[in-house]
Structures are given as C-alpha cells and as structure tokens.
Amino acid sequence: METDQPLRYRYFKVCVNFFIFRFYGNTGIISIRSNFSLFLWATWYSLITLLFGWWGGTLLKPFLGIRNSLEALHINLSGGIDFTHEMNEMDCDEKINHIWNNLLRTTLEILNKDEIEIIIELQETYEEEALKLYDDENISFIKDKLEQIDINHITDNEILDFFDALESYKKL
Where are the domains of the chain? Predict the structure, then answer.
C-alpha cells in the first residue's frame, strides 16, 4: 500500500467550446496521493478537452479554441500545475511564512518550518524576560534550549539570519 507517499496538490486545465460559448480555465485543486491517481485525473481532463475543446470560435479569434485545447492538453499530460507549495504555506501562520521567505538560502537549507516555529516560541519566551534582544546572550539562550530538544545543527549564523527576518516581520 502507498501510505507513505506525501500528499501533493495539483490542478488541471479544461477547455470547452460550443460555437460562441467558450470556457478555458482551471479545475479545482485536487489532492493526489499516488501517481496512478495523477494519471487518472490528467486523463479525465484531457479527455474532456479532446472531446469538447476544439469546436467553436468567433470571427475575431477563429483558432483560439484550438490553441487553448493544445495548451490544456500539454499542461494536463505533463502532470497538471503543482500547487503543493502554496497549500503547504497555508498550513503555517503569517509570521512563520514571512520569516521563512526572508531567510537566506543557506539558512533555508539547514532549517525547516517546524524548527522556525520552535525558534519563534523560544524567542517570545526570551523577550518576556530579557531587556536586550538579538545579542550573544539571546543566541546562547536559543541554542541551549534547542540542544535540550536534540536540535544541534543550528549555528549562530542561522540564528542571526532568523533575527533579521524576525525584525523584518516586526516592521510590518
């Protein structure tokens, strides 16, 4: 059974034309667990486009239905449009997403969003008690607390980058 596969989100294109009635748009977002399911959805929307997408058009744009049909078929048969990143961002609150989007690429390779959330909580705890923020004592506090929960791979540079992103968020 394929229970360990991550959930992916995709949408497909559909093109339907009947004389002057024309529809070219996106399907709803579909959650996909397996490649077989992806194949079925892509085939279904491609079949709809093949049957109903070519017909129709107007005098001003006589080949628009054909162009839209070809584009929809290309997108669908190449697996649809991936929407997984956007859906995963919806799982986190605005603060985490803002900090994540403002970290350096090297920091992003080391941290994940769960660790960002933990560091935010630690920083909020530190801010309740401390007078001075974003100094060596602040970095030591965060690193010590992270080591207590077996997160040992984060260095001072990543924490300083986190501080920069946090300050950017606070300026909003």
Answer: 8-87, 92-170
According to DSSP, residue 10 is labeled E
Tokens 């920069």 found at: 164
Contacts of 157 (CB under 8 A, 6+ apart): 106, 107
Which strands form 8-11's sheet, in the order they lie side by side? 30-32, 8-11, 81-82
Return the H-helix or E-strand segment holding 23. strand 21-26
Residue pair 24/46 in contact (Cβ under 8 Å)? The answer is no
Q: Which pLDDT tens digit goes with each residue over 103-153?
A: 988 888 898 888 999 999 999 999 998 888 899 999 999 999 999 999 999
How far is 77 from 17, CA to CA, in rounded Å? 20
pTM for this prediction: 0.55
Specify the length of the chain in residues: 172
Strand-strand pairing, 13-18 and 21-26: antiparallel
152 touches 121 (CB < 8 A):
no
CA distance 78 to 142: 45
Neighbouring residues of 34: CB distance < 8 A, sequence distance ≥ 6: 2, 5
Residue type, 38: L
